[in-house]
Fold this protein.
Amino acid sequence: MLAITAAVLALIVVVVGAYVRLSDAGLGCPDWPFCYGKPMPAEIAHPDALAKAWKEMGHRYLAGTLGALILSLCVLSWRKGRARGLTTALVVVVAFQAALGMWTVTLLLKPAIVTGHLLGGLTTLSLLLWLVLTESAYAPDKSVRALRPLAAITLAVVAVQVTLGGWVSANYAALACPDLPLCRGSFVPQMDFANAFHVVRELGQTAQGELLSNDALTAIHWTHRMFALVALATVLTLAVRAWRLLPTAAVAIGLIVLAQFALGVSNVLFGLPLPIAAAHNAGAALLIATLVVINFFAFRGLRPSP
């Protein structure tokens, strides 16, 4: 039960974290771990600044609660002698996540740190979900192992796509291509890939400290958009292949990826409204979670009991 609670909270933390970033509240508290030197947001003259501070601190307290739950899971697992490696890995990941959270603020939303923080949250969710699955009973079925190669490849492809999506968000490039199906009136617009995907740089700047151009932002958005087609095809292929062996998971992964694709298109069509943008991040988390479930059954040779 504790592992399930932690997994649900991890999903909430990921979604809330995305909401904080998308609502421009990532620097709502300019210091860390406190907010303006206090454990709770102090009175701020501007109401919008106060609202952003509460969003940021709310996310921090949710993440802190998750960290405490994971530490408890690790202590219990060592006492019981079960899943010690997995829970220890979770503690390490969460500790690194805390560091990334601090650097997100102290390094002023550096894109590599922000993207890494998102990936760390999804890794935490994935490990917790794997832990939940290992503590449940399932029927052995060696035929499910036939899904191993495609399930692993699909998870890797979606992980790349989520990373690209995080890079789009971290660089505020979601509206760099404001039209569909073309981008700035062309299928292959003018782009600057060298600066777009230079990892070690400040927000909105090239590695040389110059202003990041529209061509670079376009390259970031266009790459995410094109790779979305690869991810969509790969996930749907897995859904078809898994239909006979894991029908519930197959339907779930198919519906989630179609909804996720529709949300991505809607972000462009409607100018990135906050609810749709946040739902797109939640969809990415659910997509990863469902793929983790499929990979668990495939690599363990198990299937849900009838």
Summary: DSSP finds nine helices and two strands in the chain. The first strand starts at residue 139 and ends at 140. The chain has two domains: 1-136, 140-306.
